[in-house]
Design goal:
By secondary structure, the protein is of the alpha+beta class. The protein is about 35% helix and about 20% strand. It is built from 23 helices and 44 strands. α2 (about 60-70) crosses α3, α14 packs antiparallel against α15 (about 440-460) and α15 runs antiparallel to α16.
Length: about 900
Amino acid sequence: MKKLNKSSPTIVTAALPYANGPIHIGHLLEYIQADVYARFLKLTGHDALYICASDMHGTPIEVNAQKAKIKPEVFVEQYWKEHQEDFQSFLIQFDNYYKTHSPENRELAELFYKTLQEKSHIYRQKIKVMYCDNCRRSLPDRYVKGTCPHCHAPDQYGDICEKCGSVLKSVDLLKPYCSICQNTPRPKESEHYFFKLSAFSKQLQKWAASKEANLQPEVRNWLQGWFEKGMEDWCISRDAPYFGFEIPNSKKETGEIKYFYVWLDAPIGYISSTKNYCDKSGGDWKEYWYKGQIIHFIGKDIAYFHLLFWPAMLMDMEITLPRVNIHGFITVNGEKMSKSRGTFLTAKDFLKSYSAEALRFYYASHLDRSVVDVDLHFDELKAVVNNVLLGNLGNFCYRTLIFTEKNYGKITAIAEETDLQIHVGELLDEIRRNYEVREFRSAVKNILKIADLANAYFQKAEPWKTKESAETKEALGFCVNLARNLAIIASPILPTFSQKIYAALAEKKPLFWKDISFTWKGKVAKVAVLVEKIEEVKQLKVAREVKNIEYLISPEIEQFGVKVRVAQLTGLTIKKKHEGIEKLKSEVQKNIICDERKDILDEYHSINEKMKLDDKRYPNAVTNLISLIKQKGKLPQINTVVDVYNALSVESGLAMATHDIDKINGKIVIRLSKEEEEFTALDGTKEKLKGGEVIYADNTLILGRFSKQCQHTITTSESKEVVLIGFGNLKISDEEMDKSFQRTCELITKFNGGEFKILHNLKNAISTTFPLHLAVGLVEEVNDHPDADSLYLLKVNFGPLGIKQVVTSLKKILSKMAFANKKLVFCVNLKATKFRGEISEAMILGVDHDDTTTLLEMASSLPGETVVPESMAANTNQISFAELSQVGLIVKNKRIVFEQKPLGTGKEMIKINVKDGLQVH
């Protein structure tokens, strides 16, 4: 690794925390890591600045500020102040902590943009972006989720796949959904600004392979994979609404105001924070960024931006390219950090039970140059703090200083221990090299080796036996010098620990590496407690963020006589096995349902027949479990949740399954399958379903069928929150079903802890879902019905919804000209019906008055755009004509309204020039 040039100034940065939430222990890994390094540089005489800022722009901030009903500027300012308090409480010492929403950052962002433009690396291009009709806004990449088109991992954001690392575009996602409202967005054309990243491919490859870049081997491998795929140009603009800096001349050039994408101006925040520091201190930021050395500490999740986009922009600006140190993520007690799992700890949460230096020492003892994740396990934290920090390093320093202060009060003589000094000196050199190459774990190990030698020396001297001898006093003099040196070399990791030792030695000025010696003499005062012992590992008292599950039963399910119950179970601790459950299974296996209630199984068979499913290939879950008992003599052993509901399924006749709530997107809908819908079973087998099968699904995939459940939401020992789905039939009374379902929930929580609540069908609750799915359709053809004088056949283009045929009875009232090439409003979730042999796949809407009908025209909207009342979502489930006729749409103030809310798309409201009170038909 190439060494830093001590004569050149150095900038150390950590990634800018987003001003959208509190600092958590995952953030702190990086800020502590960078702080340790910056403190070491200063300790060894480098001109170093530790620079950071709050990242204040982007859609999440704009959306959340709107929810909080405050301006984005006020919203981010609150977190800017809170973040600084958290950093200070963990002894993270920035030289400057600024903000990206600042005059300096605007000035520099525009300078970057102008320079890139002058070098012909900026161009405009019309592209497809995702637009949510329900939210009435364009969706940035991180607000669209779906299935990765490369590895087919579900729940990926629209910018990068966290599983395979592929760079994505939101329009390429399979089964996309809006992460704000969970509805399906559609592609929309918009003109945007692009940075010509492809022009930098060779330069970036050369930089990545250089000693100056100093990249970790794993990171170089990532980059090589990205280079092999080819560099795509980078869209650097975003549509309104957006909180950020407006791109100069964007309205003139594109017809709309565009904003700099947050990832353009966020890294520039490193420079603007430096500029702010220099403006206050009288320096010049260019001395650091053009002539100095830059070291970024970042997490692996933002490697792409810091290793490709950012260096390419710096190349155009002719600014020094950075060295980038990438770290892994944090897990807590072996689990991914998660609010729903109760393993998400804020900085403030941690300090309620443990000290800041406990975490600093723990992280430092685990950090090296690898990109592996660090597990914060609280039993290990206790062991590291009590046995290592306190029992070794702290013990030597504390007992040396306490003994010296109590018995002598000062050091006047020092033993000459040449061999030990040489050994310690070698370790000091090694520790310095460890710090320089950011191998903090090795630095800690070597510091502890010195502490081991020191403890052994103290113990061998046995000063308590011969307190007044000259030899003992000299030995204590040597020990105090060892403690002082340990304080100096540990100070980047343990600044408070070291400061307490300095205070006991009356050191009034900061100490540096050059102050390490074995010649210090002077007064020794009483030392404060250096390390707080962890008496017990406290249970994490973190409020769980529980996702509220909603479900809806489509009316078409009623024809099959299927009954449904749904419950949400939270705070579970799932184990492999429990003796009480094994006893329950044993009892159930002796008294299987088919002996007494064959009628229930026959009814399931009847339902399969109605769905045209082969009973042998697709046995109902209850039938399948009973067959297993008959074949193998017992139920399978899975875990303490699955085993409970399997046993109760056999006992009651309810077909039950659970699904991990963390992996469910949006509300659950129990409905009939569509032709060619894909289902992935527990064993990974994929199957294209026939239409008309009873299934239940979320916004992205089918969760389960009568016979099987899906692989993606499987309940494992890691699941903390699950949803329990129970199916019954007409041979099970409602009273029986409720009792059995309740008992299943009670037994699951009895053996797994937590709590449950029975959920109610959204149909019976107040909902923000509009009962209809109305869409704009472009009428491409109007033809006479071949067998009916009063009917037209319309060929209607619904954009992403496809081409549909619509039969209308308005032939005697309106001419073909009233329909042709018009964008009109249709109901598209109406059950298809035949009229005199011709299928009608949607229904045109209009208002009858004065012996004519006025159609609902929306000339400014695109085919396929959803028409909904303000703040409501469309119902995409199929409805009957009877249900449609019960929805009251009326005219008010030349608008069509539902429950006092006007209907429209993202572009326009429906306008109609008829009198108030008329109804839409």
